[in-house]
Amino acid sequence: MRDRILIEATSDIERTPPPGQAAIILAGFAIGVVLLGIQLWLLTVALDLYLSGRSMNVWLLAVISGVVFLGGLLLLFMRTRARRVRR
């Protein structure tokens, strides 16, 4: 089996995910967007509390935002690792 050489004119090749995978990809994207929104909201609230002088809960909110970020990195790592194992 020979490897295909990729050139610019590859519009004839279908680039759709395997059957049943489109919903999983879309759900993962939606979860990622929601988590990004939550992370931005947490950082906005933390900055607002910090600037208003009530810095008691700022670090807790920043840590929670960091945990969301690390969770996203972990999922990305697991996804790429699963793809390598599947090949």
Order of helix and strand elements from N to C terminus: HH
Q: How many separate helices? A: 2
Rg: 20 Å
Helix content: 55-70%
Shape: elongated
Number of strands: 0
| Major sheet size, sense and barrel closure | none
Instruction: Give the end-to-end Cα distance, rounded to a whole number of Å.
Output: 15 Å
**Poorly predicted residue ranges:** none
Fraction of residues in β-strands: under 5%
Mean of all residue-level pLDDT scores: 81
Features:
2 helices, elongated, single chain, 69% helix, 87 residues, mainly alpha
Structural summary, described in words:
The protein is an all-alpha fold and 87 residues long. The protein has a domain at 30-86. Helix content is 69%, strand content 0%. It has helices at 21-51, 58-86. Helix 1 packs antiparallel against helix 2. The protein starts with 20 loop residues before the first helix and ends with a helix. The model has no long low-confidence stretch (mean pLDDT 81).
Which helices and strands appear, and what pairs or packs with what?
Elements (H helix, E strand, L loop, with lengths): L20 H31 L6 H29 L1
Short description:
By secondary structure, the protein is mostly helical. The protein has two helices and no strands.
